[in-house]
Amino acid sequence: MKLNDCHNIEDFRRLAQKRLPSPIFHYIDGAGDDEVTKRRNTAAFDDCDLVPNVLAGVQDINMSATVMGQKIGMPLMLSPTALQRLFHWQGERAVAAVAQRFNTWFGISSLATVSIEEIGAAIKTPKMFQLYIHKDKGLNRSMVERCKAASFDAITLTVDTIVSGNRERCQRTGFTSPPRFTPSSVLSYAAHPGWVANYLFREKFALPNLDTHVGQGTNVAVSVADYFNTMLDQSMDWKMAEAVRADWGGQFCLKGIMSVADARRAVDIGATAIMVSNHGGRQLDGSRSPFDQIAEIADAVGGQIDIICDGGIRRGTHVLKALAAGATACSGGRLYLYALAAAGEAGVQRVVGKLHDEIERDMKLMGVRSVSELDRGMLRWR
User: Fold this and answer.
1) Catalytic pick from 26, 134, 192, 279?
2) Do 156 and 129 contact (CB within 8 A), yes or no?
3) Which of 27, 166, 331, 344 has its CB 3.0 to 4.6 Å from that of 79, i.e. a possible disulfide?
4) Which residue from 111, 229, 230, 223 is spatially nearest to 173, judged by alpha carbons?
């Protein structure tokens, strides 16, 4: 299987599985407990049908959307995700370059493998920083100040990782950051010599947004669960979120909002956007899918705050369904991580291009000339 054989996200997933050692692939692919919520994130779209209009004169359409004050070229954003240079040596640099070509939001994680400063200098298109609140208050202040200096456009505070979800695939494979080669995993690494050569002989693996304050994850191998459970501040509350917003002073998003009550509180503390997200099903298994929640959240706070449907997106039609239900835009992580792992920047370019083309084609088939024309009258739930 080659890159040109990849026509959808599942194709990229299969190619990524062939090219990655088992612990690395299952870190991307896995989720919490029985992975019910991960499956539901995509399956939820199947419970909703589109009702198209015709004879709408759709030769010229406008795919742009405005999110957190930034006009982007399509209503799909590339969510911040951690540890990207483990998946391919080009890591965040590849994803950032593709986001800039398509003029859409790109985010990096606190646990990114490329620094805030490098991404800030590399791209001019909108960029967000995903902030995890650590027990080390000096680290939190450092990351916010570095984002200000690097001219980031938004901070996105992750609010659904107060403890780590139960990621059993990672427990079985022994995944850690940095990778720990164990007797149970060494055969899988040995079977992927290209990945091993890149990991050992290219730029040394690091978490440059954290390693000024902590060694865990860069010099000390830890599981993601251990990192979240020992390093993050479990006392985080609404008052703390509001303090981060005030300290940052710019566009501010809360990632991990699922309830109407929390969406209303996000408005109250002055957030400019929410990511309706369950962390890709990696946290609370059995929770609702983001798409399941969009309509009622939009009814409650639509027009007061930008609503981003984050997770489960696999097709252009999924984006259109979320927008019609009331989302401002959509975002996703795995949708480009599989492609990054499969083929680096070329893979990300191909998958984002495929999704861009699907959104454009599906808008024409829906008979809409701009994303603002999508509304709930075009949806029917089964």
Assistant:
1) 279
2) yes
3) 331
4) 223
pLDDT (tens digit, 9 = 90+) per residue, 99-110?
999 999 999 999
Q: Does domain 3-381 have CATH number 3.30.1490.100?
A: no
Smallest Cα–Cα separation from 107: which of 138, 147, 75?
A: 147
Place of tokens 């309509």: 295
48-50 and 251-257: which strand pairing? unpaired
In the chain, the largest separation of any two C-alpha atoms, in whole Å, equals 63
Looking from the CA of 7 toward its CB, the CA atoms found within 13 Å total 1
Closest to 367 measured CA to CA, from 33, 59, 26, 42: 59
Ordered by start, the domain boundaries in the chain are 3-381
Name the nearest CA neighbour of 340 among 175, 136, 198, 225: 198
Is 279 an active-site residue? yes
pLDDT tens profile 232-241: 999 999 999 9
